Amino acid sequence: MATFAKSSFSHASYASLRPVYPQRLYNTVLAYHQGPKSFCVDVGCGHGIVAKELASSFTRVMATDPSPGMLDQARSLSSEISNIEYRQTSAETISFLEDDSVDMIVSGQAAHWFDYSKFFPEMARVLRKEATLALWGYKDHVFVDRPKATEVLNKYAYGEGNDLLGDYWQQPGRKIVQNKYRDIEPPAEEWEDVQRIEYEPEARGRNSGKGTLFLEKRIKLGDCMNYIRTWSSYHGWQEQHPESQKREAGGKGDIVDQMFDEMLKIEPEWRDDENWKDREVDIEWGSGLILARRK
Question: How far, rounded to the nearest angstrom, does the alpha carbon of residue 230 sit from its chain's CA centroid?
């Protein structure tokens, strides 16, 4: 995704604020896998958390990403791990891998940017028979105990207009995420035993949504604000509004400040707490996981 390759994008903030995938997600993927665990490839690896986690399960791991900034973060976070190799390339451009040479290919929060007309033929070429393809992504979070704040979040995230973020998402990628990867269809002639594991959160308490919950976190509101600032839509908005800087950096306020101003008006417990940015809240992300086996 072009935003994450730009020099103005904070790859360090992305690495520190994005959710961490829980062990139960990796266990689900590994339990599905059949056969050898010699070689795993993580495409669209971002800051490398998936490659780092799977390195203990495979003899060799390769992690690829088109963004040099993301790869720098990945290398710095896994410097103590010797069996990970990093390469700068897109998920569709892996001609350097031999036919039938890979046991598993994974991708966390990247597959919605792929060109499937090129991606699936390359996956079918390099994966051995009965090898695993695992793709997962997550949509926007929900304040599980705060339905009114969640409504404000959704309005700012997807409303249209100059003062909202909806027009700044790159499509169709964002719609694919919002639909929990249902739009990604492994071709039936090359893939079998396709499984989908989803979760749709609700603002009615923890684990009140439908499906299998993988991603949840207790987070300070101030950190939540900065997490939203890692969104690609926020980066696009910021490029069009360079004069609008966040208050904590000395500016008059950006769209995230405006979003939380509106939340404070309808969440009196937050508003009445002078240290509200240190207040912790529970959030959950909707997610979709696709598992497919090479025929």
Answer: 11
- CA–CA distance, 67 with 97 (Å, rounded to integer): 20
Per-residue pLDDT at 10 exceeds 50? no
Kindly report the backbone phi and psi dihedral angles of residue 229, in degrees, each rounded to the nearest multiple of 5, phi listed first.
-70, -5
Q: What is the DSSP letter of 229?
A: T
Counts for the chain of helices (H) and strands (E), in that order: 12, 9
Question: In angstroms, rounded to a whole number, what is the distance separating the alpha carbons of residues 99 and 120?
Answer: 14
Contacts of residue 262, defined as CB under 8 A and 6 or more positions apart, other chains included, come to 152, 156
Instruction: List alpha helices for the chain, DSSP H.
Output: 2-5, 11-17, 23-32, 49-54, 68-77, 116-126, 147-158, 173-178, 221-228, 232-240, 255-266, 268-271
Q: How many CA atoms lie within 13 A of 294 on its CB side?
A: 23
Q: What is the DSSP letter of 93?
A: -
Chain segment 136-180, per-residue pLDDT in tens: 999 999 999 999 999 999 999 999 887 899 999 999 999 999 999
Confidence of residue 14 (pLDDT cuts 50, 70, 90): low
